Amino acid sequence: MQQIFPAFRRAIFGGLAAALALPAAAQTTKTPKYSNEFLNLGVGARALGMGKVQVALADNATAGYWNPAGLANQKSKYDGVLMHSELFSGIVKNDYAAFSMPIDDKSVVGVSLLRLGVDNIADTRALINEYGYIDYSRISYFSVADYAVLLSYARKVGSVEGLSIGANGKLIYRNIGNFANAYGFGVDAGLQYNRKGWNLGLMARDITTTFNAWSINADEYKKGLNGPALAYAVPKNSTEITLPRLVLGAARRFELPKQFSALVAVDLESTTDGQRNTLVSSGTVSVDPRLGLELSYRNLAFLRGGVGNFQKIKNFERQEQWKGQYSLGAGVALSGLRVDLALSRLAVEKLGSNASQTNSLIVSLGYGFK
Predict the structure, then answer these.
(1) Of the four listed, 120, 125, 143, 337, which is most buried by Cβ atoms within 10 Å?
(2) 278 CB-near residues (< 8 Å, 6+ apart)
(3) Reported pTM
(4) Per-residue pLDDT reduced to its tens digit, 185-226
(5) Domain limits at 313?
(6) Domain total for the chain?
């Protein structure tokens, strides 16, 4: 224990120093907020039911997303996960699949696939024909979708019991019909330390910064436009940069009477792309704290809850109030099969009411086998 905490502190402060230095070095480059934000929605109903608190906990195929170091701690030899969720009344589809397996007694590899998309969007630019009449046969349809492939590697550090490290190489493809697409690449790195009921984790997303190169199809963009519409500016090819974010996590399990147990976890997510509407906010670093709880019975049945994403939101009277994103979840695990459900409520206020709305139901299946 005395060996790991100095090393853990050095890793944390070294990562923070590197991340804080990158925004200053990138002042001459446009670095928009919320770049590649589809990669921050979260995966797995267990995690989403706990308010996305997973950096110190992930120990199955989902660790490839939350913290690749956790792959080295998976309990089964092979593990796979599937997830599907629909946002905004089914308009947005969010799909995820992952698989992980060992390559020796200390190393594990994994692959994760993600897609977030809106399909069957009507293109009505050519709805009016050359005679000025509506012609529905001229309507076409396209999709807007973001894809990512994460290739993960994790390894146990033999010199320190309970310590594991890991990294992701991620390939990104973003598509807006035939109008534009982007290719990107980035690297994540993480570590986990588990000992005597304590779980600690550190995840550095986009640690090298992630670059997306956008290519615009100007001819397709102009197709079907006429008159004043031709005066609209056509976007130009550009490069989009995603700056690093660091997530520090800690968790502790408590044994309760009658074969119950409770797992309490907290994550602190720090972003470096400018001031955000978070609980701790500054021009250099913004910090979003999250809290998760999992109650289990004999590690067979689970109830979960979480809260995070605190923001100041103006109500109907134009007064600012702090609102959070709350989530609930449940799951069962039997003979290697895991079935998890999560219900997440976004911090969006209904006009004229103090009640939040916009619920999302997430379902995921996991299976660990020899």
Answers:
(1) 125
(2) 271, 286, 287, 288, 310, 311
(3) 0.84
(4) 999 999 999 988 899 999 999 998 998 999 998 888 777 555
(5) 4-369
(6) 1
